[in-house]
Amino acid sequence: MLWLETPRNPDLKLADVAGYSALARARGAILVVDGTFAPPPLQYLLNLGAHCVMHSTTKYMAGHSDAVSGALVTSDQEVAEALASERSIMGNTPGNLESWLLLRSLRTLRLRVEAQSKSATVLAEALMKHPQVTAVHHPSLPCHPQYELAQTQMVGGAGGVFAVELASAETAQALPTELKLFRNATSLGGVESLIEWRHQYDVEVSPCLLRVSVGLEDTEDLLEDFNDAIRKISDAQ
Fold this sequence. Notes:
Radius of gyration: 19 Å
Number of domains: 2
CATH class of the largest domain: Alpha Beta
Number of strands: 9
């Protein structure tokens, strides 16, 4: 089995799903892709050749930070039947409440995800010009190393998550606690905007990097909040 995550956490690097699919099939392997960061309508991984797609439905599928669950999706009938059988035997079934919450949320999935993706693109472009920002990682940006791949693979937008690197680790660590509209939390995909100092959870990640999950607040308000927080930290230093 070949396992991919695209976009990848937390640096937003992409994997060429069609290319890896051809590689896997040539060797008799199956391709499984974690598509949590960019669910439909942003990308359709089964159409690109994935045998199975995994979603943490806790994130965008549920979208309101109130359900914990996951899903495996496949267009292969044999694989689907095997997964259903395994689920029945092991008892890995969602509860009634989680199922109801997911059904509620899926009705607005397209509206939420498209709006969050557009807002993330606006914020990423604006933050690229900030003097305290050294890098922004989002597939919508022409400077992204796989920008061309994103244009063909992510047909509905580049997603609501991006990473930003600041000039110093001290500023990056302090910023989440100074923001008013962004909540300092490690999840993503909800209607509220979240930010996290990723180095706190993964020491291999640059201490200057922040991962941002854009919610449904007004984009101009979010940008103003970000600018005000950096200004406050800079004045204190």
